[in-house]
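TICKET #2291
ISSUE: user wants both folds in one file
ATTACHMENT 1:
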Amino acid sequence: MTDRIWIVLLLVYGSAVYAVSDSNDIATELIQDTHFTQGFRVIAPQHGVRVVEGYLNRNKHTQSVWDLVQWHSRYTISKAEVQELDAGARRFSNEAKSITICPPGRDLSDLVLMLDSRPEFEGKFRQDGQPWPHLLVEQAIANCPSMAELKSLKFHIEARLIEAEYNMGEGNRPSSHTAQVPFVLTIQNCSNKSPGYGDFGWFIIPLYDHRYRDWPEYIAQDTADPSQKMIYTPGAKACGVKSLHDREWVTVDTDILPILLKGMDESWARGYLAGSRDLSDYRISSINLGWEVTGLAKASIQIRNLGLKAVFTDCSKHKTD
């Protein structure tokens, strides 16, 4: 996982906050623009610096809250021309990637991401230590209650694998080569009074990996990123994720708070997030979703109805205007 810690000036957008029926709890949707209708800021491929080099499908009436990230790509998509498709869908593409945005309720809704690593790697299998191309949508989360305040965290997504053309020839090593789609949450110490202020870890809901119908549990240091932070995924079954390999629609609708809390316990047990063990210091600071392809593959996924709904008990700190 690469560069998932954000240093940005956050603009405050309105968010849906409402009472949960038959209780005193408050629920809020943490993700802005869940149907991707407000366009994307395109981030330059050079890793380590976050430079906005253009916009795709920009809506002049609203500001984009999503970044389109293409780390380590040889082909930037920032200058791609729009292709108008049926039912209001719009596609932007180049030699190695495409992104299709479609209004909700249509055949191509809401978002299709395609990445072809073969031109990126010039048809050669990636070697150890060599970076790999990404095609991610990312968003900073500005309105998340602390992990101590959360009562539940309902994650919802509907996903379908459209294409997975994968080179299994000589040179392919499952330990190094794959095409995968994780949903990544950055949990960060956001208390400036804490000695661990700014520290973070990556917590993954595993959606698709070419190697596994049932993505297994994985806990390790991210040696591919300079931060060397911990990556934690409890595995697909623990997250209620069924296999996308059959190319049918798969719906994930589960409370992921127990998973995240278990991941934080694992982090502390292994010496990570050592500056604080106080849950009130930690919040979800960003999310991302999309392709990381280390093998030789052309792969495409469709997602719709994304949501991350927080239910919390202390509503005094989270009011609408």
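ATTACHMENT 2:
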Amino acid sequence: MIKSFEDFIQDFEINESSLDTIDILEILVEMSKENELEISEGWSFGTRGRKGDRKFKFVGGKNDTDATSTEIFDENGKFKYHEVLLPKSGVMSYNLYKISDMRVSKALKHPQKFKDIEKRDIDFDSINQFMKRTSLYIYQLLKHNEVDIITYPQSSSEFNKDMVEHIMSRYKSSPGIKCIPNLMTKNIRNVYINYTIAKELGLTDSEINQLRKDIENWQKDADVYELRLQVDALKDSIAYKLGKRGRPSNEIKRVKEEIQALEELIRIKRKGRKGRDKTITHDGRAKNFEIKSIEDRRRRSLEGLFGINPALQGIQQNLKGKHIVIFDDNISSGATLDDICLELQKLGVASILPITLAIIPKTVYGGVHEKI
């Protein structure tokens, strides 16, 4: 009995170059129906207390829990992916795996932080194997869909970028398909309230007025955030210069003066503001606006949260009629994907197919997901 994707490839002597021309998943489904296949794969964190077995890795065989499972089929040989209707845009999102353990997300997106916090090593070879396997899965799911552009949202990690590169490698013979990273980016300056939806969701006049004031503050924070990014860049340049031989003291002094001027400008812009400064992290770096922190009804009353990446402004005329796939490592509410889809619809795209790595858990945003 075949236990893993890798066993399947080896047993059928399928080489990497021929994977894209074979409908692997259809074969696997038939094998599963005939009880010739038993794939139980997922993430393991190793065993606590055993020094040699404290490694986060993708494993064939039994994984730690259902929350770390990456099985493709259920016991009836049917695909286990989930559909989640994104409420604002009405677009259906497809979530590949049942993963809901946030430690998996942390390990994939921020491996060094994961290692520092969990005190565990990471098997990067197994992660690469997982990404290759997942790209094949996605390719097979997309085989009967039109695809013009594959993109992914802004992220503080490299995981989305690496995953999409694996997906694009499956389309070597399809030069018309483009990868456009960060096609849509946060654009808090263009946020506005859809008053009709706000009323439908039950927001009172007082709550709408407070939301309007909050938007004004968020937009002021956006100005401060951009200044902080400049400060970060200047501090990084000083660190680089200090690492070189012969410290250029005059140049460093000039950069420090620029930093002081920017910090004074930040102080002026924040004058009179109460509460914690949300534009800075605990270690002093610039922090962007956290969309996910907005309560559900308020969030769904807002539009314009995302816009075309300023570096790609000329592209928006070419999006009309295009078929777009969005990949995200999403393991939270789905709200970001929903807002991106909504703005793409306004640009006249023909179809949007969001694919996420993990299941979107039950949250107030969008209600309860349904398994197919």
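RESOLUTION: both attachments delivered.
EXTRA DETAIL ON ATTACHMENT 2: Residues 203-292 form one domain.
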